[in-house]
Structure formats: structure tokens, C-alpha cells
Amino acid sequence: MERIDRRLGLLFALPVSAILAGAFLAPLLVVAIFSTMPQKVFDFLHWPDFSSYRVILEQGYWRSILWSLGLAFTATALLLVICWPLAYGMARVFGRFTLVLTVLVVMSLFVSENIRLFGWFLTLMKGGLIEGHLRAWFGQGFEGLLFNVPAILFGLVYVYLPFMLFPLAQGIAMVPDDARAAAFDLGASRWQVFTQIELPLAAPGIMVGSLLTFVLSAGAIAEAKLLGGRAVIVIADDIETAFTFAQNWPLGSALSMVLIAVVGTLVILGLRRVDLDAIMGRRR
């Protein structure tokens, strides 16, 4: 019976697998092929040519990759610290108010990311909403809060907060009340319960939220361009420039493949530590 169920599962998964292969793997294969073509020339006679990867090392594109990864790691850590109390409240404290809070957070996703960032740009810029009112009321202002790394991190935290909040709340909800109560009955302090009970048992939600946030932040471009003002150049900006202004598709493809390889490796390492069956409710 189990063998029949397995075969039926594979049969039912074929249509979805075919769609994923056509919509996901095929474009990646095309990008991989373009990344091994000669610079700015679609010449299959001299294929493969790995000069684009050599250019990435020689012209310092690796700095953009490091900036993207550093910003993504920092934004993920900030979101974990910021979202934990809010997620804990949603899972354990707020009760019916959790639905209201969820709707408010989800409603922010109904508005385009670029529009929301433009709103913050007009708020934080010199002569904007904050600085303009301070100058009008007190006769002095400041040089603005934009075009620096903290502004980029603020944008990443603001945009990707829901992607950390909801998995984290789900992970905290997976912690049994009995385990927490038993730890307190045995004399554990609040810190011990947090570090030895709540964090380990909520690890699936923490890992999923962190992976979502990290992957999205590593490939983000609007935050660096709008709020950062190119204070730093992220890898997504270099990829866009290579594909558009430079018309160097092999270089853009090579940069894309490097980003996919680095982020994909980190994601796979993270997923190995996640119990997906427990998250899907198939195992308790």
C-alpha cells in the first residue's frame, strides 16, 4: 500500500515538476549558457568562454557581492531582534488583536515596494517631511538621513519585515506550553527557558524567516538606489547595469550565476537544519 501511495505521489507530482522545470530551471540554464559566452559577443564558435568570470575577479565585482551579503546578513539579524517580541505577542499574548495586526502588516504588501520607498525618500530627504517641518518650526534642520548604509538597512528592514514576522510567529506557536511550564516548575529562569526551550523549538520558524529575508535582501536593488543613493554598489545594481546600459549579457549572466551559487549554497546549508516535516505538520 505504501509503495502504491508513493507511485501515485510521483505521478501527481509530474505536472508540477514539469512546470517548475520549464519556468525555473530552463531560464537558469539559459543564463548559465550566456555566462560562458565571449564578452559582448554571441559567438558559439568560441563557446565556452569563461572571460566574464575572470572580469568579475579582476574588476572588483566581488566587492558588490560582499556588500550585498553583508547587508543581507545585517538586515536579517536586525529583523530577528525586532520581530521576536512582536511575533511572540502574536503567538502568545495579543489574542484576537493578532488578526488585526496581521491584516495591518499584510496590507502594506498591497502597495508597491518602490512606492513605499519613495514615500520614505520624501520623508527623510533634506527639505522633506521631517527636515522641512523642523526648519519651519525651529529655524534649523539637518542634512537629511539618506544616502548612507543605515538608510539602506532601514529600507531592507522595513520592506522585508513581514517575511520574518510570520514564519517567526509560526515557529513560536510550535513551542508547547507544557514544555515551558515544566521548565519553570523545575526552577529554570526566564533566560534559561528562552535559550534552552523556546529558541531550539522555534528554530524551524527562525530558519525559514531568516532564509526568506536573507535571499530577498541579497537580491534587493531599490533600497540601495533610492535610499542609499549609490553610497554602496550592490550586486543587483551591477547585474542591472551589465544587462541594460553596458549591453554585456555574458557579464550580467556571470554575475547572476555567482549570486545564485553563493545564495543557493547558503540556503541549502540552512535548509539542512530545518525539519520541514514538522513545519508542514506531518510529524510532531
Question: What does this entry show, briefly?
Answer:
The chain contains 14 helices and no strands. It is an all-alpha fold. The protein has a single domain, classed as MetI-like (MetI-like fold).
Question: What does the model show?
Answer:
The protein is mainly α and 284 residues long. It has one domain: MetI-like (MetI-like fold, Orthogonal Bundle), CATH 1.10.3720. 75% of the residues lie in helices and 0% in strands. It has helices at residues 2-35, 51-58, 61-93, 97-107, 113-124, 129-138, 149-173, 177-185, 190-201, 203-218, 222-227, 235-243, 249-271, 276-279. The two termini are 23 Å apart. The mean pLDDT is 82.
Which terms would index this structure?
globular; mainly alpha; MetI-like fold; 284 residues
List the helices and strands and how they pair.
Layout: H1 2-35, H2 51-58, H3 61-93, H4 97-107, H5 113-124, H6 129-138, H7 149-173, H8 177-185, H9 190-201, H10 203-218, H11 222-227, H12 235-243, H13 249-271, H14 276-279
Q: What structural category do the secondary elements indicate?
A: mainly alpha
Helix content: over 70%
The top level CATH class name: Mainly Alpha
Number of strands: 0
Total of domains: 1
Shape label: globular
Secondary-structure element order, N to C: HHHHHHHHHHHHHH
* Rg from Cα: 23 Å
- Major β-sheet, in short? none
The CATH superfamily bears the name MetI-like
How far is the N terminus from the C terminus? Answer: 23 Å
Q: Could you name the ranges where pLDDT drops below 50 across 5 or more consecutive residues?
A: none
So, CATH architecture? Orthogonal Bundle
Quote the average pLDDT. 82
How much of the polypeptide forms β-strand, as a percent range? under 5%
Count helical runs. Answer: 14
CATH topology: MetI-like fold
